[in-house]
Amino acid sequence: MAERLVAAATLRAAAPSGPSPAGRRAGPSSSAFFPSSSSSSPALRLVSLRTASSRPSQKARSTGRGRSVRCMATASDAAQLKAAREDIRELLKTTHCHPILVRLGWHDSGTYDKNVKDWPERGGANGSLRFDVELKHGANAGLVNALKLVQPIKDKYPSITYADLFQLASATAIEEAGGPKIPMKYGRVDVTGPEQCPPEGKLPDAGPSAPADHLRVVFYRMGLDDKEIVALSGAHTLGRSRPERSGWGKPETKYTKNGPGAPGGQSWTAEWLKFGNSYFKEIKEKRDQDLLVLPTDAALFEDPAFKVYAEKYAADEEAFFKDYAEAHAKLSSVGAKFDPAEGFSLDD
């Protein structure tokens, strides 16, 4: 889960490169989902070279440069999605980019507004985050690096949508970091141009004056409840925040000074590439000054209704995994348009 879907991650990319011009123009706005924390690595530079050298047909790709390039608005091919999942697993092994891939999926889906009926105006996971106009939103600073990581996979498998790819990458990152199996469905339809991107300001902020109220405003708008808010916040067990990007965290701690990926930033947990319930334990105790606690994190143990779930997850990792998997799957689907309408599973 800084302005994000609870996110965000920054979730915190261990692998991505330095801030893009888009990220710099966006300013220091941070998402509570996952505050931005991309970093540079040889692995990402190699991915960028592969992206530059590939020549997919115009039908199969979108430039993301403000031009409306038609892409496939049909159901993704299940066989290609399964193959893409294997490529994502290999990417995770070499780049340690779990946090930023979670953030990518969350920020594409976290714009959903249950009060808006029409698609794509209602937001949700629709692939709109591939366009520059949305990448430049303050909460999305650094996510251009996530797009660079997954673009070669999209080029390789043109019969999958960006919306499905972003959510596949996010769920796979959680699972490969030791988290629960997410009961995902696929078949999301992509928007076709930047004019269909949502307005800025849909994602949560990391430091609002009334953190608990702010989280409820943002997540209730998406149709999520208190339990789901707290469960999704637990994704901060992954990643780190960089003050030069998000305005939050220390430049470096004993847990981040040696990477992996580019060193630096401040993590929420000591093992910030391992998914577990340590986030809740650390937030509750607040014993380690090298670990980050945002106002929206602290609110989970300060607000009476949130605290019920936060205490439960700190004591019971199995319960956290169960509730997290359900909340993540819901977040990835709300607002999305599916073809076929009921979607499909890769594990049927």
From TrEMBL:
Q: Where in this protein does the record put region Disordered?
A: 8-42, 49-68, 235-266
Q: Which GO terms describe its cellular component?
A: chloroplast
Q: Which GO terms describe its biological process?
A: cellular response to oxidative stress; hydrogen peroxide catabolic process
Compositionally biased residues, Polar residues = 50-61
Please list the reactions this protein catalyses: L-ascorbate + H2O2 = L-dehydroascorbate + 2 H2O
Classification via PROSITE patterns: PEROXIDASE_1 (PS00435), PEROXIDASE_4 (PS50873)
Checking PANTHER family in the record gives: L-ASCORBATE PEROXIDASE 7, CHLOROPLASTIC-RELATED (PTHR31356:SF64), THYLAKOID LUMENAL 29 KDA PROTEIN, CHLOROPLASTIC-RELATED (PTHR31356)
Give the record's family classification.
Answer: Belongs to the peroxidase family. Ascorbate peroxidase subfamily.
What's this protein's name? L-ascorbate peroxidase
